[in-house]
Amino acid sequence: MPKAKGKSRRQKYSYNLNRKRLYRSVRRRAAPRIACSHIRHAWDPTKSVAQNLAEMGLAEDPNKAVPIHKKTLLGMKVGSDGQQQGKKMVRKPYVVNEMEYEASLPEKKSNTLSRDLIDYVQYMIQNHGENYKEMARDEKNYYQDTPKQIKRKINVYKNFYPEEYKDFIASLKQEKMDVQ
């Protein structure tokens, strides 16, 4: 079927169209997307970003909050301009306190491996021991991993689950003793 006429032609720029009026509605002040729930709950949409952050005791510009002093060639520090802005009153200190508490909590260990990878590594160690070349030629090596790739997977398993690995090796040694 032939193409419709005019579809392949380049669109011409319309000089008479007022684009400012088109985008004016889009450019209206929108509330920023805030990821932290503590800040989101304390945010006042009627105030500016700088005012909101100042009320919470947070810095709008980190470069102004912690200035970096320039050093001279002799290694001496040059003093700042001497202008210190008046300290603004923090009306919502609970925001910073909650954020500090949340940051002080211990981080959860999120290192996990898939069950398939654990089974694969255990199968390879059980049948081939430390012989990585044999592991690469094994029929269960579906992804055709090289000996180095298999060794890397085994090392990752050792690092993520050291106790489980020790127990697994101990059980293998026990099986060998039972067989003999």
From TrEMBL:
Keyword terms, alphabetized: Nucleus
Gene Ontology biological process terms from the UniProt entry: ribosomal large subunit biogenesis
A Pfam family assignment: Nop16
Protein name per the record: Nucleolar protein 16
A single cellular component GO annotation: nucleolus
Gene source species: Podargus strigoides
Similarity comment: Belongs to the NOP16 family.
Compartments, as annotated in UniProt: Nucleus, Nucleolus
